[in-house]
């Protein structure tokens, strides 16, 4: 019998996705041993009782008997037309049905957009912290992710000087995650305009991840960066997972807009890749038109007194009451990215921190370096559990941090 070891591809060397990484494996093992874990690691809304609107569910059920065949490789006409109408609401000019690609979640399309573009050594500017799928997709596509810093002292807004410094002749595009995961930041129009100007000056594509564009608090308004110009190329991503609490439906979309003439070859590459996977799942496609055209129940959840707003406020208050913990209050999305003062918590390995928190307190979070943040002094917390569970979880985090302060002698 052969003893040859079978190795994973070298393409995966720089690919990591710690949201579902080694700490989660430890959590699974603990659950198998009978422990109950409070999971604050992933924005999976359904497990916290945040269900999709009933009309979406009913529409999919009604249409399921007709959903067994392949669709056009870009997707069914009706949902793509509904997305065109949505782009008009967002003031993105010149989008036709042909510019819309449906995917198995935005995640599939993010990887597709990178695969179609990048050659070995090409660079993409990605925020730090980022949603790690972006960094992983750039690496897997043969490109080099280059991280520009977002400034915590300025509400986690991109550091435009840092972004500009990191543009080289090899840079192909800039990723903008707005509203932001993991920080909950929402970018002002003047920052978006400055990013457009950088893209214009250097001939770059703007990749806009806008999956949380309706999860907005305190009356904040989201601006699609693609609405601000038509002379550069924009690729915008969105979907039903978060705004419509339907992660498992895997119903996402990608919109190509702006200067499409100079991108004909790239668009041909996108069309090839869309055809290779045949089509996105048909039942998920069937939910899109009803979702976009129906009652927007997300507005009730994020309004003052709404469930998500209450949970955000509670989580922020309880976290910032812990000695040595500070946190920019999220304006959007489902996450916060608190900072642990390194003088009080001199943590050198934040994955070990997350591991120890899980082992001691049965609370699962993701360490900040899992989002490609350069220093081990942050973590991401999901504020999706009901208030009682959230208070219990943050109480356990506070207790664990109290133990750390005693251990470090920083009480």
Automatic annotation (TrEMBL):
EC category name: transferase
Aminotransferase class I/classII large domain residues: 36-397
Tree of life domain: Bacteria
CDD domains recorded: AAT_like
UniProt keyword terms in alphabetical order: Aminotransferase, Pyridoxal phosphate, Transferase
UniProt-listed Gene3D superfamilies: Aspartate Aminotransferase, domain 1, Type I PLP-dependent aspartate aminotransferase-like (Major domain)
GO MF term set: L-alanine:2-oxoglutarate aminotransferase activity; pyridoxal phosphate binding
Enzyme Commission number(s) from the entry: 2.6.1.2
Entry cofactors: pyridoxal 5'-phosphate
InterPro entries per UniProt: Ala_Aminotransferase, Aminotransferase_I/II_large, PyrdxlP-dep_Trfase, PyrdxlP-dep_Trfase_major, PyrdxlP-dep_Trfase_small
Membership in a protein family: Belongs to the class-I pyridoxal-phosphate-dependent aminotransferase family.
Protein name: alanine transaminase
Annotated organism of origin: Tepidimonas fonticaldi
């Amino acid at each position: 019998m052969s003893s040859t070891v079978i190795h994973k591809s070298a393409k995966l060397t720089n690919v990591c996705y710690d949201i579902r990484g080694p700490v989660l494996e430890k959590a699974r093992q603990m659950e198998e041993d009978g422990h109950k874990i409070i999971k604050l690691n992933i924005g999976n809304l359904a497990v916290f009782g945040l269900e999709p609107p009933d009309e979406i569910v009913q529409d999919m059920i009604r249409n399921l008997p007709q959903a067994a065949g392949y669709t056009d490789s870009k997707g069914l006409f009706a949902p793509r037309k509904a997305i065109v109408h949505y782009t008009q609401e967002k003031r993105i000019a010149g989008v036709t049905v042909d510019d819309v690609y449906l995917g198995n979640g935005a995640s599939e399309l993010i990887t597709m957009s990178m695969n179609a573009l990048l050659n070995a050594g090409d660079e993409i500017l990605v925020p730090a912290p980022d949603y790690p799928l972006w960094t992983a997709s750039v690496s897997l596509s043969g490109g080099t992710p280059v991280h520009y810093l977002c400034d915590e002292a300025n509400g986690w807004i991109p550091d435009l000087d840092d972004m500009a410094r990191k543009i080289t002749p090899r840079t192909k595009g800039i990723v903008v995650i707005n509203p932001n995961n993991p920080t909950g930041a929402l970018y002002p129009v003047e920052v978006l305009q400055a990013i457009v100007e950088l893209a214009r000056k250097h001939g770059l594509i703007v990749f806009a991840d806008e999956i949380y564009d309706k999860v907005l608090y305190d009356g904040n308004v989201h601006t699609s960066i693609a609405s601000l110009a038509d002379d550069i190329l924009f690729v915008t991503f969105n979907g039903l997972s978060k705004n419509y609490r339907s992660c498992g439906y895997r119903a996402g979309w990608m919109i190509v807009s702006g200067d499409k003439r100079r991108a004909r070859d790239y668009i041909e590459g996108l069309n090839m890749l869309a055809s290779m996977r045949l089509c996105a799942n048909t039942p998920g496609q069937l939910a899109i038109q009803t979702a976009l055209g129906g009652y927007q129940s997300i507005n009730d959840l994020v309004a003052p007194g709404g469930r998500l707003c209450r949970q955000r406020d509670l989580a922020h208050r309880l976290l910032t009451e812990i000695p040595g913990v500070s946190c920019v209050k999220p304006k959007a999305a489902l996450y916060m990215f608190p900072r642990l003062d390194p003088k009080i918590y001199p943590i050198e390995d934040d994955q070990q921190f997350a591991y120890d928190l899980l082992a001691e307190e049965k609370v699962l979070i993701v360490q900040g370096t899992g989002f490609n943040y350069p220093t081990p002094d942050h973590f991401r917390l999901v504020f999706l559990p009901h208030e009682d569970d959230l208070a219990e979880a943050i109480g356990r985090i506070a207790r664990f941090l109290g133990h750390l302060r005693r251990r470090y002698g920083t009480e």
